[in-house]
């Protein structure tokens, strides 16, 4: 018994060598079993690779003439007189048969006249092929060849053997292209018939067989050293497993019906007995299920396979042995050398590989290489490998159980095991420490009692355990449970796992769809029904998350609250404001946002220090909270700014009253280190939904209102939408005066020269708008341009500027003043007006001024308004001949894109970059890059705001083309421009009266 156990252990440890031995056994002593497996594999593989039988394929070039029951009944019983066979052959020959396979053996002599008549018919046709069949005349005497009579052989077109090999399961799968006795060898009957019908095509069958011994087919075949009494077979082939339909014609119909002869012409004819009981049927897996072929049907199938090169070549036995044994042997040696093994799952994937290889070889080369021995070896190796893995798994399980027990005692999480009645069965040491008791004393207690849970948490726990027991699934509670355990309560997170998972029943599957539900909700309706199997258990894992929860709450508080004052920060304020606005939209209530900014806080911070400043902020926060209602939100916005959110404000007066209270509370004196400090505040108020309906808008409006209050002296509150605010009255007054100013001629143009940086000569003028006030003061556009944009007056004022500039150029021309181009600025709103091109064209035509003397300046911010519209506008202006300049270059956000897309004739660098070019390296780098970029595009550059010689030298050194600024001249009135252009010009260094004597009111 011991050696048997050792042998079994060795087999499990060395599965690959057992597989090698098994393959060798199948290839040797157990070959009959292997042959049965190979036959089964051939049938499956042939069907899989060749497809199911297709009855739609018809072999039209063949015809079977059947000696059936009707022919025997009309022409006589079998055997027929040979004269009748002669008549049948004559009829076939006369009808134009290509070849006649006469599957009837005429080996015995008959009536002399009949034999002569038959011989004459065969000789006269010359296309009749007669069969040769092996037979055993006497038991134990060996096989003999059944040949036709010599006189029939002499006239026949050929002989062919009709030997068929029957497999052990009674089916015929193979044929032999050659068979015979000793040195006498004949081709198979179908091949001999084909050779008569088409000698050239039949000769292409000859040649060596791949993966077999070299063997050339000849006719007749010659083999030396053979046993003259033994029937031998050569050139084995396998028949494809599909069936073709061959047309049939009864011998009676052929002999009696003259029209039947038309079906014979040009076809290969098979003649054979098909009457029941007279012919030995051929059973083949290629035939339809439950049917057998007659002899001539079998030959017709073989001929079709020969003609279409569909016969399969079986591999030689030595090749089969090597292909099955060597891969397993090499794999066993490799695994032993590398001291490794293949896992059962990977090996399972390799089981179909031999069959797939055989199928691929069959499809690619029409060679059949059976691999069932290799497959059987892989199955054995897989079985033994899985047995080894299972044994290893059992060993690992035993080891894991020991480790699990040790782990349960070592881990810090508390682990409890309970039964279906929720009674405690096991506690690990951590659980004993958590509940403050030992397993021996608490075993059998209800788990809710043991854990000291609140009634609600007890219901949640029972619901979770009920779901775990019923669904046999892991249940994890998202919310921690509170345990009232001494010395202080603890928060634990629970995971419940079933000990014995089972397949869910129908009700369990329905409940399983509800994964992720909160057990607390189930607890509200009572504990769920439990489906209890035999001794179910649940393991509870309790993780103490008290510290983590407290830390998370602290982090959440810090993320949403100001660290210094403890008030909500911007994030929480914005969230609450958005939530409150949602309620306002639904209920039509009013909401107020109060923006609070401290007055003179910077002075306190700078004089007393940041620590005292922090104390002031903390005290202000406390006072703001004290003045607010319980449901209001007081938040720190940043620095010395606070925001108070008032929800459900009954009226504007209530918001105003609370704002006044806040101002009074903040204005109370502070005591800081014995010093009395006073700090007031301003409050800006925005209401929703009157002023705005989103959080950002309300905050911005409240901030704007707060700054308006600061502008009026501080310690006051301002509503954003006050009925009669000062700024609104001023706006309306400016708008009215602007309308009258355009009609009354209060607008004038001043012109600032642009000079060539090389020689200081004037090369252009920029027209600058001025608005004359009743007291004589001139306002620059910065004081009123916003009103013109908002009211639309910019269109009429801009048109006036263009007409006035062209009119003034005409006046200078008439006075003999040398003209230079004049630049006119246009706003974004003008660029969006399609009438601008007509305004320019009409102004040039009315003044009779050449278009190149007018230049339109467009700022980068204007270019960003509508790229397509602006490009079309500038293209039309340039088509008029008007030049286009890009003003304030560098202040936008897509300068390169503008230069690429827009047709410009000049680039003007914004004065903000020129101001610091001698002191700011970044500004100087931008100016240098702009000059290089413009010159690379072939566009001149104008530097605006040149005020000193250092700036001029920098621009000159870096090849700037044109300069404009106070160094050369202030904006000039029309008469001053005439004198300037007549020759009273500044020198290149900027020392000129025009640069120093102009009144400031003209700037």
TrEMBL record:
Domain called EAL: residue spans: 731-985
Gene3D superfamilies: 3.30.70.270, EAL domain, PAS domain
Classification via InterPro entries: Biofilm_reg_signaling (IPR052155), CHASE2 (IPR007890), EAL_dom (IPR001633), EAL_sf (IPR035919), GGDEF_dom (IPR000160), Nucleotide_cyclase (IPR029787), PAS (IPR000014), PAS-like_dom_sf (IPR035965)
Pfam families on file: CHASE2, EAL, GGDEF, PAS_4
Keyword Transmembrane helix: yes
Protein name (Swiss-Prot/TrEMBL): EAL domain-containing protein
Domain (PAS) ranges: 400-472
SUPFAM superfamilies listed in its UniProt record: EAL domain-like, Nucleotide cyclase, PYP-like sensor domain (PAS domain)
Membrane-spanning intervals of the chain: 318-335, 347-369
PANTHER family: BIOFILM ARCHITECTURE MAINTENANCE PROTEIN MBAA, DIGUANYLATE CYCLASE DGCP
Source organism of this protein record: Sphaerotilus microaerophilus
Key words, A-Z: Membrane, Transmembrane, Transmembrane helix
Region (Disordered): 203-231, 502-533
């Amino acid at each position: 018994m011991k050696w048997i156990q050792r042998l079994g252990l060795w087999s499990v440890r060395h599965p690959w060598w057992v597989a090698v031995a098994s393959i060798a056994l199948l290839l040797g002593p157990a070959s009959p079993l292997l042959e049965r497996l190979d036959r089964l594999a051939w049938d499956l593989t042939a069907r899989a690779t060749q497809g199911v039988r297709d009855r739609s394929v018809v072999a039209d070039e063949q015809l079977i003439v059947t000696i059936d029951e009707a022919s025997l009944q009309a022409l006589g019983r079998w055997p027929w007189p040979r004269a009748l066979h002669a008549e049948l052959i004559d009829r076939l020959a006369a009808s134009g048969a290509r070849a006649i396979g006469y599957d009837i053996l005429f080996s015995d002599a008959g009536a002399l006249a009949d034999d002569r008549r038959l011989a004459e018919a065969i000789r006269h046709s010359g296309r009749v092929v007669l069969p040769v069949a092996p037979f055993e005349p006497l038991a134990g005497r060996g096989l003999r060849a059944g040949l036709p009579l010599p006189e029939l052989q002499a006239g026949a077109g050929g002989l062919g053997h009709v030997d068929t090999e029957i497999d052990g399961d009674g089916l015929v799968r193979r044929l032999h292209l050659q068979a015979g006795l000793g040195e006498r060898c004949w081709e198979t009957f179908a091949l001999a018939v084909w050779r008569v019908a088409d000698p050239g095509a039949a000769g292409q069958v000859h040649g060596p067989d791949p993966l077999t011994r070299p063997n050339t087919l000849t006719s007749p075949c010659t083999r030396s050293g053979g046993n003259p009494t033994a029937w031998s077979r050569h050139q084995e082939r396998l028949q494809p497993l599909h069936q073709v339909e061959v047309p049939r014609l009864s011998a009676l119909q052929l002999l009696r019906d003259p029209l039947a002869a038309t079906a014979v012409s040009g076809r290969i004819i098979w003649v054979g007995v098909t009457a029941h009981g007279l012919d030995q049927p051929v059973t083949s897996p290629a035939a339809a299920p439950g049917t057998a072929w007659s002899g001539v049907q079998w030959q017709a199938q073989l001929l079709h396979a020969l003609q279409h090169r569909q016969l399969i070549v079986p591999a030689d036995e030595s090749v089969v042995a090597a292909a099955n044994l060597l891969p397993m042997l090499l794999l066993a040696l490799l695994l032993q050398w590398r001291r490794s093994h293949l896992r059962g799952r990977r090996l399972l994937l390799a089981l179909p590989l031999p069959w797939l290889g055989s199928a691929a070889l069959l499809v690619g080369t029409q060679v059949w290489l059976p691999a069932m021995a290799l497959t059987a070896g892989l199955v054995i190796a897989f079985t033994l490998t899985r047995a080894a893995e299972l044994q290893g798994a059992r060993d690992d399980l035993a080891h894991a159980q020991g480790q699990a027990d040790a782990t349960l005692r070592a881990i810090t999480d508390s682990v409890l095991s309970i039964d279906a009645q929720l009674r405690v069965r096991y506690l690990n040491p951590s659980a004993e420490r958590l509940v403050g008791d030992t397993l021996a004393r608490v075993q059998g207690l209800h788990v809710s009692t043991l854990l000291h849970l609140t009634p609600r948490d007890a219901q949640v726990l029972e619901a979770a355990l009920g779901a775990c027991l019923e669904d046999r699934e892991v249940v994890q509670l998202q919310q921690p449970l509170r345990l009232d355990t001494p010395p202080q309560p603890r928060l634990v997170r629970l995971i419940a796992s079933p000990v014995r998972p089972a397949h869910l029943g129908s009700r369990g599957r329905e409940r399983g769809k509800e994964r992720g539900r909160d057990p607390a909700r189930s607890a509200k309706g009572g504990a769920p029904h439990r489906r209890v199997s035999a001794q179910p258990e649940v393991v509870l894992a309790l993780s103490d998350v008290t510290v983590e929860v407290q830390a998370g709450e602290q982090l959440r508080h810090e993320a949403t609250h100001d660290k210094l004052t403890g008030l909500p920060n911007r994030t929480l304020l914005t969230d609450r404001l958005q939530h409150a606005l949602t309620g306002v939209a639904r209920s039509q209530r009013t909401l107020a946002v109060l923006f609070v900014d401290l007055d003179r806080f910077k002075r306190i911070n700078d004089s007393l220090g940041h620590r005292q400043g922090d104390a002031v902020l903390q005290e202000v926060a406390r006072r703001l909270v004290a003045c607010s209602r319980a449901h209001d939100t007081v938040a720190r916005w940043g620095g010395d700014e606070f925001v108070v959110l008032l929800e459900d404000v009954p009226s504007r007066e209530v918001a105003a009253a609370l704002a006044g209270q806040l101002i009074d509370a903040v204005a109370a004196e502070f005591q800081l280190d014995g010093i009395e400090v006073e700090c007031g505040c301003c409050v800006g108020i925005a209401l929703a939904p009157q002023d705005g309906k989103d959080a950002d808008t309300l905050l911005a409006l409240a901030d704007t209102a707060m700054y308006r209050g600061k502008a009026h002296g501080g310690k006051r509150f301002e509503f954003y939408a006050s009925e009669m605010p000062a700024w609104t009255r001023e706006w309306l007054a400016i708008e009215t005066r602007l309308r009258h100013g355009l009609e009354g001629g209060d607008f004038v143009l001043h012109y600032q020269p642009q000079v060539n940086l090389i020689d200081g000569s004037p090369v252009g003028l920029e027209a600058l708008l001025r608005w004359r006030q009743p007291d004589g003061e001139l306002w620059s556009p910065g004081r009123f341009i916003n009103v013109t944009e908002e009211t639309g007056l910019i269109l009429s004022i801009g048109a006036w500027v263009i007409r006035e500039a062209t009119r003034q150029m005409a006046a200078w021309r008439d006075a003999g003043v040398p003209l230079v181009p004049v630049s006119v600025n246009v706003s974004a709103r003008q660029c969006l007006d399609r009438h601008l091109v007509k305004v320019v064209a009409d102004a040039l035509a009315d003044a009779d001024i050449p278009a190149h003397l007018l230049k339109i300046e467009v700022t980068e911010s204007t270019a960003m308004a509508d790229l397509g519209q602006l490009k079309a506008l500038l293209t039309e202006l340039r088509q008029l001949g008007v030049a286009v300049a890009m003003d304030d270059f560098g202040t936008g956000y897509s300068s390169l894109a503008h230069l690429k897309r827009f047709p410009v004739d000049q680039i003007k660098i914004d004065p903000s970059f020129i101001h610091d070019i001698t002191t700011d390296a970044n500004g100087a780098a931008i100016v240098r890059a702009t000059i290089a970029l413009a010159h690379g595009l072939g566009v001149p550059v104008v530097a605006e705001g040149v005020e000193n010689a250092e700036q001029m030298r920098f621009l000159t050194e870096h090849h700037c083309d044109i300069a404009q600024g106070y160094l050369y001249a202030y904006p000039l009135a029309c008469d001053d421009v005439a004198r300037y252009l007549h020759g009273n010009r500044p020198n290149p260094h900027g020392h000129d009266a025009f640069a120093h004597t102009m009144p400031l009111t003209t700037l």
